[in-house]
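pasting for ref. prot 1 ->
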Amino acid sequence: MTSWKEQLEDRIPAQLGGEVDLFEGQIELKKQGKIDDKIFAETRLRRGVYGQRYDNGLRDDGTGQKPLAFPCGDLTKGPDTVWDAPGMMRIKIPFGKLTAEQLDVLNELAEEYSDTILHVTTRQDIQLHFIHIEDAPDMMRRLAAVGITTREACGNSVRNVTACEYAGVCSTQSFDVTPYANALTQFLLGHPDVQDFGRKFKIAFSGCEDNPCGLVTFHDLGAVAQLRDGKRGFRVVVGGGLGAVPVQAKVLAEFCPEEELLPLAQAVSRVFARLGEKQSRARARIKFLVQKLGIDEFKKLVAEEREGLRQDERWTAFLSDLHATDETPVRDAGPIPADAPAEFRAWAAHNLKPQAQDGYYTAIVKLPLGDFTSAQGRALADLAREYTGDSIRCTVEQNLAFRWLSGADAVAFYERLAALNLAEAGAGTITDMTSCPGTDTCKLGISASRGVTSELRKRLTLVEDELDPAVQALRMKASGCFNSCGQHHAADIGFTGVSRQVGGRKVPHFNIVLGGQWTENAKSYGLVVGAVPSKNIPKAVELITQHYLEHREGDESFQAFIARVGKREFRKVLSPIQKPPSYEEDPSYYSDWGDPREYTIGDIGVGECAGEIVPFVEFGLQEAEQQLHDAQDALEAGRSGAAAAGGFNAMVTAAKALIRHLEVQVKDDADDVVANFKTHLHDTELFHDPFAKGKFANYLLKMHGDRSYESASDETAHRALDEAQLFIEAAHGCYQRLTQAAAAAAE
């Protein structure tokens, strides 16, 4: 049978194909025990492959139950049994844009390797759960063939770059941020200056200040479009973040000209990589570095770093064609039919937004819990082909946006959604809740965030037409733990999972967070007013909203009301429902939503959101070893030229890792690597082994000078591989000496 690698050989970009081949080789080496566990864990994370929680087995399907069954290996095995326990793949969708063809492939993967469910994340990614790591390379190849990568979707790296789903079609934007988000995505993907972070790094773009679509204020780096005298640029902020202690981003540049955006991001990355915390994960985000240094000192360091950067044509190349990311409608514009039925108009009130382009609309497909099935996904891809073209966007609120829908087609589009059971109204209202995976699949989950949002959505949908408009407009978001993956700090009413002990038994609870502001790019964060048993959360929402409606002044907003009456008032409101009954009185309080088992937090494991902190040089040396193994295979197959070239490339990779460890800027081409190796490692004798005294360094210099690998015989190829092996061993020794010297200097 023809492998996927062979079938897709002509469609996979060379760089992406090489990365997948490398990862497949690393999986084989891990099986053989030839890769350190810590390095392999961060390696797979940087390629989007997570371990996931296994004790709950199946995830809530939106009804509060877990009824599906599928072959996923032994779910009873622990997290260390990476080959048996199913995991999760996070798939990067830059600024959320999907084509119909890409959605087709994602649907196929969900059916063949997962549980048929596709999950939209709050970073506009797609996640597939219950996949096996040995299937990951073929999944990656099939994605690469349609222009999708999983690289750096997880781990201590630049995560998916997000942007407003209305970028380019919004009437309030300064300009379309799409080409800039795309350019920064491509520029930083795999860039050497973003490989040595202590933690993850999140970037967001917004086309305007007022609306919440970009949410730049809680990002590590945020860019808000600005126009000054007709000149395009960005207000750039840095050091924001949610997590256990949310922090508002600080202004790095009031106006960064468009041509300076990419080098500024590179300079920030280099400062973070060099000075950011590397020992304690809890303080390794850039927000802590900005707090430690102060924004003025941080600005100074970034400016100095920018001055020292080597010129890169990619900084401005994309500016010559800012229309490269433009979308083309497939249907003529038109008005919404005057005789549109009432059920359509009820849906359109919140799910259909007029675009800046007359006669076109963006339709929001509301996804309960951010999930849709592969069968629904296939139909959605067909809908896009027929009505909107390749303009689907995943949203940060875990929905799908279909742009460029002609008003003339809006009713037909709605009817097709209704046939798919995807025409739920109320996008952006209180029933449109955001939730992290919680205890369903996350190792850090404490309480069932998906379970509680599912229950709330079900109850509120039944009375949605009876809700006061002020209550309808509220946003609710839930996180299963303090890490705020559900963005609960930025919601009107937020929930974060905690645990309490009552009578010797554990009871799932949620801290209730009030006063967050979703608008103006999440301008302010809420605070905890108290913990409530999970089973009392629906009652808590009822009490909170009733108190607001009964005591507000005029059309006072929820945020203004909370600011006026204070959080103490709401503690009184919640007090009657904060104490759970005894187990004997009502045992239901001692299990969580969607899980009939008695509640426990004993299943919580080590989270993989960040992974281990592994110096970039160690990845480089491991990659060099892999390249050498591949070269040895080529020699055994009789391909002496490829073998010798592989040996040379392995030495270049090892040398490049050491050069970057010295914080020297170096390009990826061999000439630049060798020149810098000679200057910074050979001539300084840093590379010289105490016994060989530079002999191994000469293997690289000589092979680069005479290009002997270009016309190698079996004999010379064999010698080249022996020399490469010795060079890589010497590189390991050099790294150890550099580390020891740094430790001694620190003392």
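and prot 2 ->
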Amino acid sequence: MRTALIYNFLIEANIMAGIAIVLMVALRRFLRRPLGNSALCFGWLLVAARLLLPLSLPNPLINAIRSPFAMDPAIRPIAGQVKVRLCDALADLGNRLWSGHYTAAGNRVWTLSNGIISARVSIVLAQVYFAGVIAAVAWFVFSNARFRLRLRAGRIEPIGGRLLEQYEAVCARRGVKPVPVYFTDPLPSACLVGVFRPYIALPLTASPQDAVRVLTHEVCHLKNGDSFWGVLRLACCALHWFNPLVWIAADMSRTDCELRCDDRVIAPMDYGERKAYANVLVLAAARRSAPGLGVLATGMTMTGRRLKTRVVTILREKEALRWLGVAFAVLASMCLIGAFATGEVRVVPRLFRSHPAISRSTVASEKQAVDYAKVLYALDGRTVSEDELEWHVENAADDPDVCCVYADNGGSIPVFEVYFDRAGNVKSLFAPGTIPDHWNACELSLSEEEQENLADDIRRFIAGINPETAERCNAYRFWNEAWQDGMRLVEMGFWNSEAAIENNADMSAYLSVLIAPETRIMNFNVNYGSLFGNG
């Protein structure tokens, strides 16, 4: 696996999820009451989805932010911008540390910058990242194993008698299939343990009256599927162990799951029952012990401000606004789709699909020459209107049978230039004034299918303007790709055969084609080798 794929996912996921986490913090602080805890938990679920799914949807707006200095096509624009900006910052720091003479610190900074550019640093960081993932997973496994062993060592017996009947009645009312319940000692508070074969651990010291309320709480955890929420939290923390915002979000989401569980518990209760249930939570808080974040178990214990928030939420009569929660869910889901839209639109458009096939025009006068040149100019959608251009006709200096037509808009560089003979066979076509002078080349990113489609369209184009040359276009090669300011250019050549390519023979035709943001032939030359040397 290439490290570029890892960095694409990690950088995009952490940027998008980081923004969402900050927004969730604000929502929890100011809109918890009208939104409700269920809506907040749904928001955390969407954050987890962005952190866990290596998905990238195509977005045409992303094309515009691709840095021309990120030459590896496997690096998507967001990650490319981060890499380029980081290298620029390090280069600037290195220049400041050099201060006109050699310094060890400046040399180290320059070495680091060069290492990022050459991918040496990227490989080392990828190794560190995977080591961190392994360490986080190992710690979670160890924490859970140790917790489960302690519970097993302290297990006394399954509940029975009247308490078992009351527990089964609670499960029936809540629509939950009963899971085993064991008295355990020592145990500070009840907890739901496990994911696939869950059970409830109940403190041996729990009073008969409080035990029913405690069991109701754990049954509601089971109803909410909070054990699976725990798995999502651990997966996010393991994959993004380096991001403190992810750990903060995991802790906050755990609190919100507890509050959502409380909402389910108190839904059928009157105020007196709510108050009694809140007293049970306060007594549990006095024990100041609960399963850690890395343990797949729920716990009733909360302290400090979170306990205050929990009690106030239980005792208040006002319910959340359902319409606001639904609106939040819809808007958040739309934002999630947008957060995945981090990929470029890489589809190569087919050439001239909306135009009729062009055919040669006999050239017997200057007017016919200009008219023919305008047809070629307009075929692929030039940005400057032909009415704004001045058209000029000359004979080629080395061949009186070849006509040269060029157009300019008052500048020193022609906007368009074309050479063709009296029969209308186009020899060369240039658009030198419509693209930047300097391009940053990168590895070719066109797939084989894209290359084949593009070559077929270009071959048909050549057949219309120079049939004799088209007959010699039996093999092709793409050898370069370049990006600049959101534009994408490729270079290619046609040969008579594959053998001609292997023998380094002259090309039949050479082309440079702009394929993004729109497809245009920028340069076309017949018999490229004889004009400019061997291809």
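The first strand starts at residue 155 and ends at 158.
The two ends are 35 Å apart (CA to CA).
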